[in-house]
């Protein structure tokens, strides 16, 4: 049970690159990091590509005007001069800048929390992993849905054999907000997402399916994809070569199979993200629109619904409980949980507590690498006409 | 609005082959055919592979003992001798016998209503189609879920452009009753389904996915699959080469894509069958466990739920309304509707009313052929290691 | 498991009074009675207040024209002359005629199945009960929702102590089809319902709440109301003195409390009827729009959903199973079940098998009397300004 | 759209009385007040009845040890000495202390935010209202569910006539956590709630039904109860005279009727709070477990579900939007919204901007008074044996 009391000695001095007024994700980072004011303190930032707008924005958040910088380079350089300079930075900028900013931050001795998809290529990701190790710094990835406590319940139940052996993995992250191309013309946040120079080799595969793919890894850490096949489409032709819809089939090393549907043209859909794991004895299903409920269906028994915050849940789940049963938690709590994990990871790293770090389940650099690999393999298959490819 | 009043001059004299006490589907045929006693009258049968058990059963249903025959050959031969002999026969036997019984019935001058999957091969199906044409007889196929009125609402809405152009077709028919092999050992009805000699080239693809595939054709008659890819598994190894789980991807001629999940090992699932069509403007979704509700989701508008029996529905839907809004209909009504359509088709055929016949939307021999083709293409793809194949 | 095989020696010769083309309930009677053609055979009727329309209708159902009578008196008189005359009659006419027709039928030696609410007064009902006893005939009441098998599961679970002691009974039957007075002007079926001369002392209390009240008695036979309080309204003033909305509070002899909301002005509602029983350990909830699901909520445990047709259900529930799990049953099956019970009751009565009769749980004359008493007590309370009255 | 940027010139200096480690509600206050660090800053507190525990707790939240006081009197006295002393205090203590603490705070010149139910009697509440006016200070009440944006959508739709005239108000707040008396023995938070000396004249009526009653006032400000009737029970006898279950019937001045069910013995219930308003044309329904969905049911049209964050919602609703459509908000956002409103009210009050204050819809002292009156009237009716009483 979390109630805001500190879990680390003091709040970490934290800055953001990006996450300004026009984007939606910056607020989620701040809600997560600043939830209880005991893990992070926002003390600086380069919030916006337009410096003056970013400065005004930062001041409105309570940041000192002279610590609202024009760009990330100045941010890192100036803060390095201060005794009370930042220790960790979050990167909430378009995909194409993640690599360079993360690299610069690590070189400046900072811990980094970066948006997904981490980078364009796994080669870049492995390079950054090596750099982080060399600098003894953490790189966390904001798979923002992964902090919902019931996902840890799923993880515990699967590990405990409560569904038997996994046979089928059914993943979905779809919405319909790009069913027409109106948003492509109007929204800056959308424009860069469909520009391969900025977005990278994919649109919905990177933008949304990486979330759900990570959830599947989180709840089934032992499962490995051996082969996959991806068919992707650009139903709005101007988005080509980037896809607005993609279907993936997976084959796992243990003989299980799976599928993913990622789409931004699922017109009218308000159901979003779903993860459904079928075992030899039972199934588990969770959706992000009802994150406080977990469906557990044992063959031959009444179907069960488990509720967040109840004493019958696994202690690894309830450790992240905040509001109590019947009191609805949302995406904010999920972000708060992963940011608290980042703080715990940074603290352990700073203390050199390798054991604590190894035991902490959080979206780390390896999770970020896996997301990039997922995209790479999907794109490689799709570009061969949707053929099976070995998962590399 | 249907209330049981006759739609044809008199009830057709009807017999069943199979459908005895130990199977589950026979009762559905009788519920459908005999719903109002104005379309069909059950006057004879060869209900069971064990003649005496079949005779006792038939008598318990109210059939004269001397019209309960030992086998279908005797049934057809003896009834042909009577002035009041049967006019139409339903075939509710294991798959491997459909072809020979249907052929014999047509040769005996009978109309035929046959269980799905119709036959083992499309070659057989085309041959039967030619024979039926030659004999001027109807062959109907009991896609038993296809009589739910809201499916016709979906059909009308798609035809009217209410979802825009179809982009994604998401089909599912899954259950978990075969999650273990217990039922393989205990149930006669299951045993033959996993024996290729009797069941044919597939298990769940034929046994269940043909239903959902037909529903997709029913609601989108204009959509044609150009290519598909099927990956099938035998999670219970003793079922090999027949699959207990299958994933299919489809590509349609208009550029739409689709997928199907058929499974009898979806452990714990009580949700069964789902058909979800995504268009460029909106989506429609229907499930067989809530057949009186249709979800209509227009991008950018509140989601809508349409209810069976309401005046706002299309007249082609409400023509098949029976109980009135709020009064729950179930699978029985669906069967009653398709059997009434069979009666209307037979009557039109008997009267030589080609126009009436052509306008009637019902699961006819072509729908049966398409189901067999669906299976053939899926199996062909699967047997090539789940490669894309042109839909033949 | 029911599959249509006879449960009684032969179908009973059955007629209907009322239930013609313009009403909705007649079809439900026929669907129930004729479900399998093994319990009842429709051989005569006085289907309509307009004789010629009734005759045409009866012929369309397959009844001989000369057994389609002008009125119930002729029906009873003429059929009494025949060796193959009717044995049982169903009364599906406006409320105000139930008493006289039932009385005449009993005097003619017939078993009677009558629509609810049975009569205007409990005095009439007790008189008819005595007459039925004297004539050794059954009077059944068509609480048409009471045949859903999961209600017997609720009954068994409550009897078995699976919810503990009953504390709160929450009943609801509401719809919105009378939200405006349009239907009052257009529909004959509605016109008589709001005319106290024909409908009796209540509208929604009698028309719909009696259904749900009976369901509560069915699932909790031991629970007795000691006091109640009813507040009723006529939101469409022209319906006064009859109510289109009513709220009731109940106090039970064991200390439990309850409430009922009956309404025909619950604008937009498509949820209909709900029965929710709270015990000291757990709750049960069932709705008629999802009759194949039963919610079982044990305090401190995951919530459970039980599904019709599953082996884990009580045998008293599964005895009435027809289609099998996952195959949706609807209101037709419920009517089929109560009509089959009527046939079993009539058969036991005819055979003088008192024990079989006493063990049969079905909506008998006592259930009909209780429904009338429910209305009487509600109306008495309401007419005193919604004061508590002892349940008489 | 809220993104954390300041809405007032600077964060208010804020303290808490109560809300320590052992209670659950304190964290909700802090999550609400400190959401964006732009409305409030937590600088002092008397967090716990056990001073040392409270001090340790405060320090763990980041409060200076020397501003963690032993009790509220010391808090108010010492802070009044400081130039940077607190401006506003939240009272999150057992009910019986609300009056004295609020009074002391106002006398100390502080704005007050107090838990519900505000006080034991409306006399006290009116007195405090007068004192607040005299001191020109705000008294806000933490009806913590009332900040969910879709409630403002309901309010706008009802005001716009989208459901017609209100006819029926159906309110519910039930849970089952007190189904047994185990919690009465184990939990301090429960013990005081069933002690009339500390809890006041009611248990569930005050503890939970006041929330839902306020929601009904929020969405229908024009509706006034003229009479009500309340029947309350103590199913766990040791809780008497305080009730663990209560049923209320309401009559409104406009002829509408209503009901409320409040319970802590609804065993197994995980559904919590529901508000359902039936108008002459349509109904609206909202629950706190799915706060991002609003059901809108127009008679004769497909049912609609409106989703939080969508452009089609009223601007008074979307003004409080934070995370964007499909991104689940929970109870935290509701608290954040009402605390932001408190900050806006305090700022307007401080500036003497009466117009801004009058236009702000938030749970103010009048809402607190109404909650107390609600309880008083319910208790008065119940204590007369559940008779109708005029709403005073």
From TrEMBL, chains A, B, C, D:
**Annotated Pfam families:** GFO_IDH_MocA, GFO_IDH_MocA_C
Where the record annotates domain Gfo/Idh/MocA-like oxidoreductase C-terminal, the positions are 155-390
Q: Sorted alphabetically, which Gene3D superfamilies does this protein's record hold?
A: Dihydrodipicolinate Reductase, domain 2, NAD(P)-binding Rossmann-like Domain
Ranges for the Gfo/Idh/MocA-like oxidoreductase N-terminal domain? 12-143
Name-wise, this protein is Gfo/Idh/MocA family protein
Species this protein is from: Serratia quinivorans
């Amino acid at each position: 049970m979390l109630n805001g009391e500190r879990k680390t000695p003091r709040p970490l001095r934290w800055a953001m690159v990006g996450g300004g007024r026009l984007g939606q994700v910056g607020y989620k980072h701040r809600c997560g990091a600043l939830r209880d004011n005991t893990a992070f303190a926002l003390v600086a930032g380069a919030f916006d590509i337009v410096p003056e707008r970013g400065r005004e924005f930062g001041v409105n958040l309570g940041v000192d005007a002279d610590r609202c910088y024009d760009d990330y380079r100045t941010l890192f350089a100036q803060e390095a001069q201060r005794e009370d300079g930042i220790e960790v930075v979050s990167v909430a900028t378009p995909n194409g800048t993640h690599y360079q900013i993360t690299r610069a931050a690590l070189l400046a001795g900072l811990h980094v929390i970066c948006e997904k998809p981490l980078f364009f290529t796994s080669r870049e990701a492995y390079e950054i992993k090596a750099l982080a190790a060399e600098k003894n710094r953490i790189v966390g990835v904001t798979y923002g849905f992964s902090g919902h406590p019931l996902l840890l319940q799923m993880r515990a139940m699967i590990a405990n054999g409560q569904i038997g052996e996994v046979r089928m993995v059914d993943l979905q992250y779809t919405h319909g907000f790009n069913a027409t191309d109106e948003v492509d013309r109007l929204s800056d946040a959308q424009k860069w997402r469909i520009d391969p120079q900025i977005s990278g080799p994919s649109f919905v595969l990177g933008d949304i399916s990486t979330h759900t793919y990570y959830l599947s890894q989180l709840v089934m850490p032992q499962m490995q994809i051996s082969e996959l096949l991806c068919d992707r489409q650009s139903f709005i032709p101007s988005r080509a070569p980037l896809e607005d819809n993609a279907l993936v089939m997976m084959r796992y090393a243990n003989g299980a199979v799976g599928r993913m549907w990622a789409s931004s043209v699922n017109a009218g859909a308000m159901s979003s993200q779903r993860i459904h794991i079928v075992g030899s004895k039972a199934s588990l299903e969770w959706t992000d629109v009802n994150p406080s409920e977990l469906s557990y269906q044992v063959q031959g028994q009444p179907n069960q619904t488990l509720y967040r915050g109840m004493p019958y849940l696994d202690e690894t789940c309830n450790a992240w409980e905040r509001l109590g049963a019947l009191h609805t938690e949302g995406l904010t709590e999920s972000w708060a949980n992963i940011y608290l994990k980042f703080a715990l990871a940074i603290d352990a790293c700073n203390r050199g507590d390798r054991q604590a770090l190894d035991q902490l389940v959080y979206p780390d650099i390896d999770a970020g690498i896996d997301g990039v690999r997922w995209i790479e393999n999907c794109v490689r298959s799709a570009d061969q006409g949707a053929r099976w490819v070995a998962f590399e």
